[in-house]
Amino acid sequence: MSVNRKKPIVLFIYKRPKHVINVLESINKYAPNKVYIVADGPKNEEDVEKCELARDVVQTFLEKKDIKYEKDFSECNLGGPYRIPQGLNWVFDNEDEAIVLEDDCVPSLSFFHFCEYLLDYYKLDSRVAVISGNNFQKSKLKKDSYYFSCFNHCWGWATWKSAWEKYDEFLQKWPDFKASEYLKNYFSQKKHINYWSRIFDNVYYRRKVHWDYTWTFTCWSNNFLTVIPGKNLVTNVGFDEEASNTKNSQDPKAYMPAYELDFPLNHPECVIRHFNADLYTQKNHFGPKSFYKKIVSKLSRIYK
Asked: Where are the alpha helices (DSSP H) in the chain?
């Protein structure tokens, strides 16, 4: 594995100090030159102490380990859909590339080296916009260290300023994108096309706001690809009641182990999307859910 320049880390925190300490331990092993801390503000009086504690934990840890950091702490609660894009805008006003983590995403050491190497390797390739640390596949790749996907999984990921600058906050391209039936280039089954059309409609008309779906649309409307590692490199430990979205601890993606990769990496022969892997991801980790899965999911929540 070649030696590359250490990449800046962006760490998003909120009110979960017990989770963030595990992420900090992983960051310390990588020993980055700089960490950007982005914190959202409390929603109510009950959150004030937790938010302050999370901020203190992160700053104390980084100062003790002598890791340089910059901070952007919001006094009011903006919510993930707004705080994360705002924080990344701030980071990319100062950096050309970055590795992004949230306070409940605990990476292996390989995750950092994987992102570091590929940020350099694909820096000038406009087809690639995201390097993800997540792999939700059932089967393993035969020889390559990673594959290319349309899904920009974001529980630990990396990107470049040049890609993030295209972030389409209000999905301005969606009406033309929808009218052109461009989603047929991504999915062959009508139910999958309808699934994403409903999501993008909701975001476009502001019925729901999701920064990650907005980022997905940005990638699709610009024909961007995401690098997916051959093994999962990040464990999401935040499936609990304090989570904003990942509350179901029975989710198959909860607490997935984070593995180490072998270096040097074996690169795919072509920069082309792995359709079979993406179809598996769509069916098993997005939707729409079958009637059977809906019943099982509802029963599991009732039982819990």
From this structure: 17-30, 45-64, 80-92, 109-121, 161-164, 174-179, 190-204, 211-221, 275-281, 291-303
